[in-house]
Amino acid sequence: MRFEVLHTCKQSGARVGRIYTDHGVIDTPCFMPVGTKATVKGLNPEEVKATGAQIVLSNTYHLYLRPGHELIEKAGGLHKFMNWDGAILTDSGGFQVFSLSSLRKISDEGMEFNSFIDGSRHFFSPEKSIAVQRALGSDIVMAFDELTAPEISHEKARDAMERTLRWLDRCAAQPLKSHQTLFPIIQGNMFADLRRESALRSIPYATCGIAIGGLSVGETAEKMYEMLDVLQPLLPPDMPHYLMGVGTADYIVEGVARGVDMFDCVLPTRIARNGTAMVKQGFLTIRNQPFAEDFTPIDPDCDCYACRNYTRAYIRHLIKADEINGGRLLSVHNLRFLARLTADIRKAIFEDRFLDFKREFLAQYEG
Amino acid sequence: MRFEVLHTCKQSGARVGRIYTDHGVIDTPCFMPVGTKATVKGLNPEEVKATGAQIVLSNTYHLYLRPGHELIEKAGGLHKFMNWDGAILTDSGGFQVFSLSSLRKISDEGMEFNSFIDGSRHFFSPEKSIAVQRALGSDIVMAFDELTAPEISHEKARDAMERTLRWLDRCAAQPLKSHQTLFPIIQGNMFADLRRESALRSIPYATCGIAIGGLSVGETAEKMYEMLDVLQPLLPPDMPHYLMGVGTADYIVEGVARGVDMFDCVLPTRIARNGTAMVKQGFLTIRNQPFAEDFTPIDPDCDCYACRNYTRAYIRHLIKADEINGGRLLSVHNLRFLARLTADIRKAIFEDRFLDFKREFLAQYEG
Fold first, then answer.
1. Could you tell me if residue B334 is inside a domain?
2. What is the CATH number of the domain that holds B46?
3. Is the full-model pTM beyond 0.90?
4. Which of A39, A252, A323, B356 stands 20 to 30 A from B287 (CA)?
5. Is position B264 annotated as part of the catalytic site?
6. Angle between helices A354-364 and A324-350 (to 10 degrees)
């Protein structure tokens, strides 16, 4: 894997880059659709690709539990199993153990947790997480980290950060397949000194990219931007910077302004299934009554499959009737919205007017 | 609308035909996928068309209740609303009132029933059913009929048949759009004399097609075939014969042998969503354990999108994980299976060997 910065905006630190992987090129800044269980919910790979996505994210935790990483390895790896020939990033499972599993027990050795499927007991260590991701064969492998909730003490945040760093050292010692690259994850909760320290001590482990974890977990937007501001001058300029779990338009624009190159989030497809479209003004709750007889597209300026072929009234009907295609059409639209947003961002950076773009974009954005 | 018989099999009464509509040609014998609520569950129109379908069925009862036929008429009609440029057949609502609505009250005037959505009280008459179908703008409009359960008395079956005939007379008196055609529905429960009488008294109302209703509702296969045998010599040879609610391979093959040209059923897509594939041998329960590590396609001889790109193991994983795409892939396969079956049937008829085809097909079919 290789990263190339094509242009850095003269108005800001925002960069346009390109990641070269064995499964194609990724133009950055980019948004990565989430396909938790080896499928972006409801969409064929061709539909995902048609939105402009070049990389999808999948989840080690879910795939380890079902259908199992050995099965996927036997199938020829995750790309072949799910029929996606673009790039894949797998997260390490740390976040899912934190957010989905009850009765988790964390020690230096790793995390013990209950399966969200049947309650059975499992154990993840840094070694185990990397072994699973090696079996899956993703292009970008995430380090196994300990996530912490906002508003914990400095001491607890330091403990978790130190553990994450010890785990990173163990992750880095594990073998990967030749096309795979390990991304360390910077933690440190909401403490500037810990974030700084975590970055400086993680960077030596980064070969082609680095991630910022533990943000967008309940803290204010200002706090998140503050942490990104702390990190921006420290991050290696010759590597992509991945802000984990962020996928609303305003956060993406603010993140890019702070040197972030990669984003992912379940939100765009999750709110789609609940009947909400992403537009330049924020969110459009298509399932609401005002759209019942609205025979215009979700967004007349959008070139996605849904906007070219269907009306708000029809999509609302599908959502109200619990028809799968409602969420599918909105998922296509929301992913295309973010692909167009990141394409617009790249264009603005190339033209050295990203701060103007950001100001104009946020002026119309109501969230 | 116009129907043309291209060939009648010298071995049997089976026919190959072609229906010409304002929304394209339909090769018969054909299977019509069901898109109850103005969408074939989970599939884009392009995906439905790619399976080979030339006509879909939609439901007057459901669309009248939600989103409402006036809304669909305002949208430019059902074809435009759901983005399907092929032909559409709408059923009359009689069957759905019978099968979905509690507290229905049937009189000569029509049927009073409770909405399956909110329990609100509604009334369907022959005039109302046709008015709704006119607003929807389907190509084939079904007469409003009274369905009866198997094992009722001859007297009750005659009463319902007589009512259906009176309703047919009222349906036929209603105006339609110029591209629309009304199909009468032959009833008469499981009584040969009533079926005969219903056919003879319905045929004068048929302008371009006729349907057989009230079969495949719980009676034995033998009883259904017996009723079809009674009807076959009576049905107008220059019109398509539509056997309502039938969609398994064996019934289709047996129906074609008895002069049936059109079929529809929710079964192929419903069992798909439950994890079952249709194959020449019958049904393959992909969700079962034996397929967990089966890295072959559903059917190696099938040319559908699912079989060209995915393994049984992957589809099983999606079904087990409640991922929409599992049911979507199996829906595509099952619809393609029936489109290939009817194409094979047409070929065998053209080659005057349909009875041989039928014998060979049923010999391997285990149901």
1. no
2. 3.20.20.105
3. yes
4. A323
5. yes
6. 140
